[in-house]
Amino acid sequence: MSVPITETLARPATTARGWAAASPTVPLAPYSFERRPLGPFDVRIEILHCGVCHSDLHTVRNEWSQTFGQTLYPCVPGHEIVGRVAEIGSAVEDFAVGDRAGVGCLVDSCRECDACAEELEQYCEGEAGPIGTYSSVEPQTGRPTAGGYSSQIVVDEHFALRISERVDLAATAPLLCAGITVFSPLRHHGVGPGSRVGVVGLGGLGHMAVKLASAMGAEVTLFTTSPGKTADASALGADSVVVVSREAPAAGGDLDLVIDTVSASHDLDPYLGALKRDGALVLVGIPAVPHPSPGVAPLLGRRSLTGSSIGGLAETQEMLDFCAEHGVVAEIEPIAIDQINEAYERMLAGDVRFRFVIDMSTLRTP
Ligand SMILES: [Zn+2]
Ligand SMILES: [Zn+2]
């Protein structure tokens, strides 16, 4: 079938309204910018909700420059994006106008390297590496990518996710980063019925790890420094809770896997020691100051210390489908866009149950 000539002509760029940080030291403020013209494989998504991730705050304040490079300003953060398709390019196959759709932490990759060939775009080995949803360089325009604290986003359909009409859309947003960050290591390490999984920390990532591991059929132990989180942990699906400020995790333990979500520097040895032989401790929190190096003794049980970074597009879709099937969503506190700076301060103080999600309709009605 030939493509009508009008379809091959470039479409105009569109203006998005959003909130951005102009520098590391100023609060976020309203900001208008251009989204690239829709290409043949692109979808334009009207953004309805966007989760607020710790990465947003660290990136806005340029606190991860040692790990991920300097932040590009103005910085429009947000990579837990859900909404509806507003427009599609002439060659788009998997989306129609009006469909629910999401965008997570990635908007592009080289599509040619070994990692991309294995659908592990998050580990892309191409020259530019994986292209982040914000504060990366957009290959199509050479401008900084801009995230979900905005009215709309243009993305290649390969990097858009399908979202069931049956799920709570706002509570699904945090699955796009927090959810996949813990789902991927749970799957990679073969968690299923009968597995024993430990989760360290009960924040945005930790509460998703408890819910997902439990939904996979694992027996879940939560490690926390806050005695006040015991009831929450049980309600989310944890079978037992260890308050580590009162008792150390049992050494020579029986856990197959521990997912450590804490982003403050801490001693890893107790969690390595809580694993059984051949178990793995997976670090997914990113502390600004490195953890102290672990002792060798707990590793002698052939235990592994490893990490994990989000997930590829196929696995992210698998996670969304799994969550729709099992009724898993995040626990959220909705906010208006003009509450974002206050939300950052509350997040730093640990005062959120368990993820802020911005209602983007508040962007349209100032
Ligand atoms: Zn994130
Ligand atoms: Zn690649």
Q: Name the CATH superfamily classification of the largest domain.
A: Medium-chain alcohol dehydrogenases, catalytic domain
Q: Label the CATH architecture of the largest domain.
A: Alpha-Beta Complex
Order of helices and strands: HEEEHHEEEHEEEHHEHEHEEHEEHEHEH
Q: What's the number of structural domains? A: 2
Structural class: alpha/beta
Q: At the first level of CATH, what is the class of the largest domain?
A: Alpha Beta
Number of discrete helical segments: 12
Distance separating the two termini: 46 Å
What summary fits the major beta sheet?
7 strands, mixed
Which residues form runs of ≥5 with pLDDT under 50? 1-6
Shape call: globular
Number of strands: 17
CATH topology of the largest domain: Quinone Oxidoreductase, Chain A, domain 1
Q: Kindly state the mean pLDDT as a whole number?
A: 94
Helix content: 10-25%
The whole-angstrom Rg is 21 Å
Ligand types: zinc ion
**How much strand content do the residues show?**
25-35%
Question: Could you please describe the fold and organization of this structure?
Answer:
The chain has 2 domains: 5-177 and 311-364, Quinone Oxidoreductase, Chain A, domain 1 (Alpha-Beta Complex), CATH 3.90.180.10; 178-307, 3-Layer(aba) Sandwich (Rossmann fold), CATH 3.40.50.720. The chain has helices at residues 5-8, 54-60, 65-68, 114-117, 169-172, 178-188, 204-215, 230-236, 269-273, 313-326, 340-348, 361-364, and strands at 14-20, 29-35, 42-51, 81-88, 100-103, 106-108, 131-132, 152-156, 161-162, 196-200, 219-224, 240-243, 255-260, 275-283, 304-307, 332-336, 355-359. The strands form 4 sheets. Strands 3, 4, 5, 8, 9, 16 and 17 form a 7-stranded mixed sheet that branches. Mean pLDDT is 94; it is low at 1-6. The protein is an alpha/beta fold and 366 residues long. It is 23% helix and 25% strand. The structure holds zinc ion (ZN) (2 copies). Residues 53, 55, 79, 105, 177 line the site of one zinc ion.
